[in-house]
Amino acid sequence: MSIHDKEPPGRRLFLRKIGGASGAALAAPALLGGFAASPASAQSVPAGPPRVSGYLSLGPQEAACVEALVNLMCPADSLTPSGVDCGIHVYIDRQLAGAWGRGDQLYRQGPWRPGKPQHGYQSPLTPEEHFKAGLAMLRREAEQRTGKPIDQLDAPRLDALLQDAAAGRMDNDRYALGAWFNDLFYPLFVQACFADPIYGGNRDKAFWRAVGFPGLPAFHGRNVVEYRGRAFPGATKPQSIDDFS
């Protein structure tokens, strides 16, 4: 079973589920909450402007790997364009290059001992370093298993690779790749889908349109009550930060 298609009717149900998902302990700050309005038709969602090619944190091989992963997890279909065309890779790169990626809000003095989940992030690595360490391990595993870099794998082989990583079947004594995928990469992917487009992902508000999220205005609090269980008329034209600039 594919990571990006776990149950019928596929992407629409998946998007509605993760639209309201909260971030993990390493959640980046740019995510805006989901809105549980009725989904709008995605037929009018354009592909958006040309993708951004400049990276602030990821190197060429890292970027190629991330692009392959987000395209696998968000394939182009009737709901949204591909992950790269939606800017998911741009959001991830910007978060890694910013204050969150540097660990500005983390306690960095040690000692670095194994902790319980409620203790939060326990590592001498910054989130950016942690992300790149896991990505490097995933790339090595891919080449050892298939003889090819991640960006040259077809979708079924790459999906199987991610399934193994997410299930912890690639973990070793030095690094838990399962925790890397489930607690770092996947939350960043979800945030990239539903954050305001000003942060690089969710280009042209594609995911907001797919789940019927109307955007920023604060008065939507009363609309949640008024339109509960009914289609919200403004969901086809969500408003972002840029719309109020």
Mind explaining what this structure looks like?
- This protein has 245 residues and is mainly alpha-helical.
- It has one domain (11-110, 120-244).
- It is 41% helix and 0% strand.
- The chain contains 9 helices and no strands.
- It has helices at residues 11-19, 60-73, 88-97, 99-102, 127-146, 155-166, 177-194, 206-211, 220-226.
- Helix 3 crosses helix 7, helix 5 (127-146) crosses helix 7 and helix 6 packs across helix 7 (177-194).
- The N and C termini lie far apart (43 Å).
- Residues 1-9, 19-27 and 31-52 have low confidence and may be disordered.
Walk me through the topology.
Blueprint: H1 11-19, H2 60-73, H3 88-97, H4 99-102, H5 127-146, H6 155-166, H7 177-194, H8 206-211, H9 220-226
Helix pairs in contact: 3-7, 5-7, 6-7
Task: Describe the structure concisely.
This protein has 245 residues and is mostly helical.
Largest sheet: none
> What is the mean pLDDT?
81
Q: State the shape.
A: globular
What structural category characterises the helix and strand content? Answer: mainly alpha
Alpha-carbon distance between the termini? 43 Å
Low-confidence runs: 1-9, 19-27, 31-52
Sequence of secondary-structure elements: HHHHHHHHH
β-strand number:
0
Protein name: Gluconate 2-dehydrogenase subunit 3 family protein
Pfam family, one: Gluconate_2-dh3
Keywords: Signal
